[in-house]
Amino acid sequence: MTRPHVPSGEGRTQTLERTETRQPRLWRVLLLNDDYTPMDFVVMVLERYFRKAEQEAQLIMLAVHHKGQGVAGVYTRDVAETKVAQVTAHARQEGHPLRVVAEPEGEG
Question: Which residues of 56-87 are buried (b: 16+ CB within 10 A; e: fewer)?
């Protein structure tokens, strides 16, 4: 859709066009299973960093445990990368090898 011609000086006109704004691509933050990170730590991470209610955090933790991974949340790339960094740093600080990754929505 175009807007009306707008004078741009010296008798010339300029056509302004609307550009479509697209939603940014979303990224899934995944928690990956390991044999060492305690289940209660995973639940705490889901509650603290991903604002999950206790019951939902328990279900995601069980998916990680039984299926090898669980979706902690879906965010824009910057937010997803920040959450990965925060959770990884906290896990290492506590001595846990918990792996957290971000991948584009629709992959995997």
Answer: ebbebbeebeeeebbbbbebeeebbeebbeeb
pLDDT at 24 (0 to 100): 86
pLDDT > 80? residue 107: no
Q: What is the pLDDT of residue 51?
A: 98
- Give the helix/strand (H/E) hosting 2: none
List the Cα angle 80/93/97 in 5-degree steps.
Answer: 70
Maximum Cα–Cα distance across the chain = 74
Q: Which long-range contacts (CB under 8 A, 24 or more apart) does 2-10 make?
A: none
